[in-house]
């Protein structure tokens, strides 16, 4: 039985090597990439048995995704579909002033038709934590309902629900996101949200500590984590806000940093750590992820602990 169950789409990521432009590329690196599966893998790497749920096309590309995720050690509990396609995205790496560019090709993906009744809800209700993100309900009206139903089923089974707000402007507008995601808030115990999204989408004002307090006070969350990019994160729990700086890192690939952070945070909370300690491990996992190409945080517990220890925390138990 998995302690963590996640639900969402995993795409195939195609990236030209050596910072080549998409329009000039004649070869691509191919990797599985999805927020929810990234979180499951990060948690699994830190010792939390994890399962990823999704709906996947019964095609060579769909099987490619599932095979790769299984290779990372997580369980995959998927609904195989003969309708819809495998979503992909193209990533063009670049520095300033151009910046990294993402091009989605995920219309009519099989996952957009996924309904809660297609999954074994016992898998969700037997877990300790169920996780999904704001990307999933952005993909279709069906997934908006499904996400709500999955959160409701988890809560009914006594499973803690965790949710990364994860706003993507290429998927929907701030108004659309606010209307949908705030309706999900009553079913969420642990919220992770970027400070910029709290301001842009929810219209909240203030510094990250104030944002965490406001979110925790206005909505009935148990824990709120507000991420603040290169400045780290803050965590609100029991009406107390804890500060966590980001750790120094040399960035090879920033994609998936937030997922590594969230997966590590959930894993350490499940292991019994308090919020400040879980934030330290989350920051360490995020820093390590930025040194690794691809979306997935292929880190070890020893590496994460070494970063935490190097930054001044006594991790002996």
Structure commentary:
- This protein has one domain (4-310): Ribokinase (UDP-N-acetylmuramoyl-L-alanine:D-glutamate ligase, 3-Layer(aba) Sandwich).
- The model has no long low-confidence stretch (mean pLDDT 95).
- β6 (88-92) and β7 form a beta hairpin.
- The protein is α/β, with parallel strands linked by helices.
- A 9-stranded mixed sheet has the order 5-4-1-8-9-10-11-12-13, with helices on both faces.
- The protein is 36% helix and 22% strand.
- α9 runs antiparallel to α10 and α10 packs across α11.
Structure in a nutshell:
Keywords: Kinase, Transferase. The protein is an alpha/beta fold and 317 residues long.
CATH fold category name: UDP-N-acetylmuramoyl-L-alanine:D-glutamate ligase
Strand content: 15-25%
Helix-strand pattern: EEEHEHEEEHEHHEHEHHEEEHHH
Strand order of the largest sheet: 5-4-1-8-9-10-11-12-13
Give the tally of β-strands. Answer: 13
Low-confidence stretches: none
Alpha plus pi helix count? 11
CATH superfamily: Ribokinase
Question: What is the top-level CATH class?
Answer: Alpha Beta
Instruction: Tell me the count of domains.
Output: 1
Largest sheet report: 9 strands, mixed
Derived from helix and strand composition plus strand pairing, the structural class reads alpha/beta
Mean pLDDT: 95
Helix content: 25-40%
CATH architecture: 3-Layer(aba) Sandwich
Radius of gyration: 18 Å
Overall outline: globular
Spatial gap, N to C terminus: 26 Å
Family: Belongs to the carbohydrate kinase PfkB family.
GO molecular function, one term: kinase activity
EC number: 2.7.1.178
Domain Carbohydrate kinase PfkB: 1-295
